[in-house]
Each structure stands twice: as structure tokens, then as C-alpha cells.
């Protein structure tokens, strides 16, 4: 009987040890494997058009635009980034009427303003409201928090691409020394410690960074009754090029400049995240997929997941930030579920090179 008990205990310990090893392999190995395969994709062919865009981006001089701020912005926020070296600039695309949501962000994850001594700056990008009373409220909010950029265009569902383009223009004009830029929607929670640690790890490759949850073979909306309708005259191809989901994605400063230059020859009738993806392609930039960006999925809160992921949608369902990164116990089983949820999925597709193929993530 004692031998049987010992054997059972040995089997139990082996099972526990196996699960611990499996958990760590899934948690940390999956994303590294995913990024390894995607970094191995063929480099985009740099034709004359691409080289021209990249050269213009290197020579870009935004000083003349600083003298005519009122043409592009009703609230410029031009001083927000002027006196500090910014490691990560976060620009949140917000609607004028969503003051409550902006305040929730200010009171939670936006509280983190530095990491390892490097500055983190978070701003809100808005268009103009239709009501003057709302504009007055936004003016007061801006004076209080000094974290709002407001474009001179009307904020509407059809003008969200203009908002993204304005964010790019503002970045290269007033915050050209920011090393990385995170563009995101206001419904999203960001784990700044996790994201910053990942960006710190990119010591040898600091250019052409365009990373997020990559959408593969996205199709234009051809329904004339749909708010997102894209006519063939504006985009004739069957599929969009690969692009990062607009819920949240990170670019390096040089990519912001290249996208800004490429945008001059692009119609703005496509969705904002697709717009950035097309501009990136025209500039010879390939998006890098990371499953740690949740896309439009909401990741159920637990400490392990929120120490690993970069973003999750539906921020209003989360606890306060001060609880998110505290130490926890007895959550190993939940962590295993989290790692399984974020384990990447691939399929093999042909590449531009005849007879070759590449591994890319399945479209979510």
C-alpha cells in the first residue's frame, strides 16, 4: 500500500512538473516562434517608388508646418512633447463626447509616465464636435490635462482616417524625437510595462517597426449601404495588403515619417488601419504580427495574462491598474489558459518568389 501511495505521488509530481514546463513553453515560446517565422518573410522589393518615399522621409522638414498650426488643429497640443525625450508616445483616437472614457484612462494605466527612467507620453486625438457647447467643454478639459490634440475636421465615422493621418502628422511635427508610437482606440487597455519591455528588447533593429495583430487578406466592404463602403474606384483590388488591426499597433519614428510621405498619394476612403497598412506597403514596410496584441478580442482579466499581453479590448470591464500588476498566487491554471489563447496559428501561403512559401498567421 505504501509503495502504491509513493508511486501515485511520484506520478502526481511528474504531472505537475510537466504542466509547469508546458505552461512556460506556451507562454513564452509561442510568440517568439511566431515572430521568428514572420521576420523570415522575404523583404519587400524596393523599387524606385519605394526608394523615393523613403528618401523623402529622411529629408522631411516639418518646421514650416509649425508656423501655421491653426490650419490643421483647433487644439494643437504642440508643447506636450517639446521638453522631454519620449521613449513611447501613445496617441488614443477618441470621440469628443467620450470624456468619461478619457478620464478612466487617465485614472488607470495612463498613470504610468516613465519606465526604467524613460518617458512615456499619452495623448488623445479628437476631431471637432458638431456642437459649440461640446467644444467649450473640450477646451476646458484640454486646459486642465494638457493632453488633447484636436484636428480642424469634423469628428465623424467617415473622418476617422483623417484622425489617424492627423496623429501621424502631429508626431513627425511636434514629437519627432519619440522613439516609438502606439496608435490605439479608446476602448483598449494597454499593459505599458509588458509593451515597454518588448520595445526595450529591440536593441539591434529600431527601424521599420510596424507591429500589432496582423490582418491577412482583409476584404474591402463593397456594400453601398454600409458606413464602411469602399467603391472600386477608390480601391480596386480584391484584398487589402497585410495590415495591423487599428485597435492598437506600434510603429517606430521612421515609419511615421514614411507613412506620412506615402499618404500624400493615397485616398482616405479606406478604414484608418487599412490606410496605414497600404501606406506602409508603398514605403516598403512589412507588418510584424504579435499575438500579444489582442485585436478586437477582450481578454478576461487575470494577473498572468495581463503581465504578458500588450493590449485587450473593452477596458471598462477591467479593475484598476494598481491591482493588475500586483503579485498573485493560485492562478497557474488560468495562466495556462491564457498561453493557449495566445498561441499563434499559422498557415502556409505562396510568396512573391516562385516555388517558395512562407508561414503567416491566420486572419482573426
List keywords for this structure.
signal-anchor, single chain, alpha/beta, disordered C terminus, 13 strands, transferase, 364 residues, nine-stranded mixed beta sheet, transmembrane, glycoprotein, membrane, 12 helices
Would you kindly provide a written description of the structure presented here, covering whatever features stand out?
This protein is of the alpha/beta class and 364 residues long. The protein has one domain (19-361). 39% of the residues lie in helices and 19% in strands. The chain is built from 12 helices and 13 strands. It has helices spanning 2-39, 48-58, 63-66, 99-107, 132-145, 160-174, 192-200, 253-262, 272-282, 303-308, 321-324, 332-341; strands at residues 73-75, 86-93, 114-115, 118-128, 148-154, 180-185, 189-190, 210-215, 243-252, 288-289, 311-312, 346-350, 357-361. The strands form 3 sheets. Strands 1, 2, 3, 4, 5, 6, 8, 9 and 10 form a 9-stranded mixed beta sheet that branches. A two-stranded antiparallel sheet has the order 7-11. α1 (2-39) runs parallel beside α12 (332-341) and α6 packs across α9. The model is unreliable at 325-334 and 343-364 (pLDDT under 50).
